[in-house]
């Protein structure tokens, strides 16, 4: 290609003035000689109008080599028109992509050069415009034409793996040809021109384990039975070369890290065939005795191991579980150990895979077996009692020091240390019992009483002499047995009644006793027979009972118990003869017998009567006190009333209201003065003081009230409704005479009542009454009223 372009450039140089340059696609096109276009007009002085003429030169695209490394500008091509006669009258111009910066043109010759090296991968072509103009007038000789300069590709880019390095995985033990992954390399060169972009794949490193398809880049396994446990990671180097892999092509490489994934193709294996373990005999049930492990070369769930104890000698004493974190087998103690009974245990443990792969069953059994030997270590243990608990019986009132039983403990260790016994003081605070420290016999230390404590729970402690720290404890229950020491007796004094119409053999009462076995005697007139639950029934042996002949029967009852030493007592049952109706209900009986059947004794009846009497006395006293109370009058003495100021906040109820004033305050008046003014109207200037009405000590107050009522009834200045009548008297004999401001009369006819406004809002109405002067009494705007008292 390079040689061909050089040849073209050489031919162009030889035929520079020829119109058939290799870059001109249609030679022979010329501007017409008789053109009237602007170019001709510019040179010949023709008209101004521009007339389109046939183009005298046409070309196709130009080509320029990319990555040109020469020192001179690279020649691209030549522009020429038939109007150019070689007299330097035509100038060529260039515009468009890269004009003046990347491409330049010789304005006289039309030669185009590339000023710098070009890269097709950056820009594959450039679009430019060329025009021929008159060099003198700078007017176009023909329209502007567009052409393309293409950058011709060379193999200057190697294939590249854009996503490398790669990682992939394939299961181990896979057959040949198993797909792994696909890689792709890209070449920036022109795929339509030559073989610059045709890529071929090959493996530089990674054989013979893997292979790659040269065209597609698919990687596959090339070796069978690759074992992950032998080698897990493989690095494969893939090369992509252009030019179809020919010599001189460019190449790119990438690395692929291929990991063999695990499959369950390995059974678990114990590192040794025998495991020796030791465990103290004092180990608790459920504690870990030791750990063993079977190693599996696989990983993940393929390495999970299950452990099982093979049934046989010693296996029943232990159990085994799997630790999920490290796949160890933990041997657990299943039953208590005793060095003195058995000192060693031997059993087999089997380890197997939890998840099997059927493809590898032909490899053999996926399990392994090992022997475990466990030696029991002797531990200095506390003494051991012969029984887990003891129960003993003793009769109450047994003499002090009587042996009631014994406990036994021994040291099972090889040393066989002697044992000493003691009673835990917390369990026997009252020291009822004692124990022999050597023999372990338990005896009474106090007299026992079954009725107080029927059962004693004590704890006996056994201690090793060689090691007093080691102790053991056992519970001892002592049952106190009862002896026959109390005579039987009736639970309470029983009283009942029998009807006069009772028939022979009729039961009528049940009796109770404290003991279980009773023997009751018979009576000539009634029989007492024992019943269940320490009860006895009474039946009549004859009929025809009469109250007139005998009202009360006292029935003696002899009670015997059933102990080894029989004890007895005699009780009395009181039977009252009463009258009954046909169904046996009580109708009449003596006073005491009537209450007794309901369960009330004489003392209870007396108490009830006393309470009733006390309540009656309290009620009488209360009523007496209430009757002695009398309402005191307002005036209890005959003393003269000097000044009585009575204040009423309520409003009178009218003329019929007879309770508005207490008339007791008007009794025994001595004197009334005539110069009293009414307090419900404004004082008149010409009024004269009234003369006082005299009265004797025996004068009735009614005469005075009647006189005052007549005055008010004739007074036209008083309101027609309620009025305030003042009945205020002052006693006689005062040296200083009256001090009351109510009856004080001023001689002056003119009075200034403005000072009432200074006394506050409560006197505002009063100031309004006395502050105005009016001839008519109808101008009064407010009054204070109270109903007249008759």
UniProtKB/TrEMBL annotation:
Q: Where is this region: Disordered?
A: 26-48, 770-790
Sorted alphabetically, the Gene Ontology cellular component annotations on this record are: adherens junction; catenin complex
Q: Where is the Cadherin domain?
A: 81-161, 162-270, 271-385, 386-490, 520-595
InterPro entries in alphabetical order: Cadherin, Cadherin-like_dom, Cadherin-like_sf, Cadherin_CS, Cadherin_Y-type_LIR, Catenin-bd_sf
Cell inner membrane as a keyword of this entry, yes or no, is no
Provide the alphabetized UniProt keywords.
Answer: Calcium, Cell adhesion, Cell junction, Cell membrane, Glycoprotein, Membrane, Metal-binding, Repeat, Signal, Transmembrane, Transmembrane helix
The GO biological-process annotations, alphabetized, read as: adherens junction organization; calcium-dependent cell-cell adhesion via plasma membrane cell adhesion molecules; cell migration; cell morphogenesis; cell-cell adhesion mediated by cadherin; cell-cell junction assembly; homophilic cell adhesion via plasma membrane adhesion molecules; morphogenesis of an epithelium
Signal peptide residues on this chain, from the entry's feature table: 1-20
Query: What SUPFAM superfamilies does the entry give?
Result: Cadherin-like
SMART domains according to UniProt: CA
Q: What does this protein do?
A: Cadherins are calcium-dependent cell adhesion proteins.
Q: In its UniProt entry, what is this protein called?
A: Cadherin-12
State the organism named in the record. Cyprinus carpio (Common carp)
The taxonomy runs: Eukaryota, Metazoa, Chordata, Craniata, Vertebrata
